[in-house]
Amino acid sequence: MTDTILIADDHPLFRQALALAVQRVLPNAQLREAGTLSAAAHAAVEADDLRLILLDLKMPGAVGYSGIALLHAERPSVPILVVSSADGTSAAEEARAFGAIGFLRKDSDLADIEAAIRDALGGKAATGSGEREAQIDTIRHDVANLTPTQLKVLLAVLDGQLNKQIAHSLGITEATVKAHMTAIMRKLDVSNRTQAALVARSLGLDLQH
Q1: Could you give the residue ranges of the DSSP H alpha helices within the chain?
Q2: Which residues does the UniProt record annotate as the domain Response regulatory (predicted)?
């Protein structure tokens, strides 16, 4: 079975650059490309032989680290390598906390990207020079372990949507939305949707990168 690599980035030229890096590391890989988070999630679900996801943090449908959380929830066993223009070690640590195996800046040399892809395929976490390993916070762990639908509901709450609006956009009933919110609040150890939103916001889910 041919290995599949998913490249999720809204810039076609950068997708081409990542595709080149992948082909130099894994020449026989089948490449899937996505320009939005929803398309990436759909591709991740459909690819049975998915080996690696290359993900840009800032793309249509994503806020902050929600792309990592959603794709990790969809395919928890598939490593996610973030390639982003976000600055600082905090972004790298947050990315790993939400389920990414590694983090690279978009201005990294092609050789560095190839090395990170090779490490990720081998299950080795990619860490930049001088960066300390972040100890995963319990709350971040809880957010990362929400189901894909629960994450979509939480992101909709962050967007200020009411249960009726969330139900319509996700194609589920209001009762199901309420059930998901109950599960979310239990997992995050909060008592209402406002507190759940504050927890998510404090972890960077509504920050643009």
Answers
A1: 12-25, 37-46, 66-74, 88-97, 110-121, 138-144, 148-158, 163-170, 174-188, 193-202
A2: 4-121
The per-residue pLDDT for range 113-162, each reduced to its tens digit, is 888 999 888 876 654 443 334 433 566 777 778 888 998 898 888 888 89
* Beta-bridge partners for 101: none
CA distance 80 to 99: 7
- Residue in the block written with tokens 């690279």: 104
C-alpha 30: how far from chain center: 21
pTM higher than 0.85 = no
Per mean pLDDT, which range of 8-12, 42-46, 52-56, 89-93 is the poorest?
A: 89-93
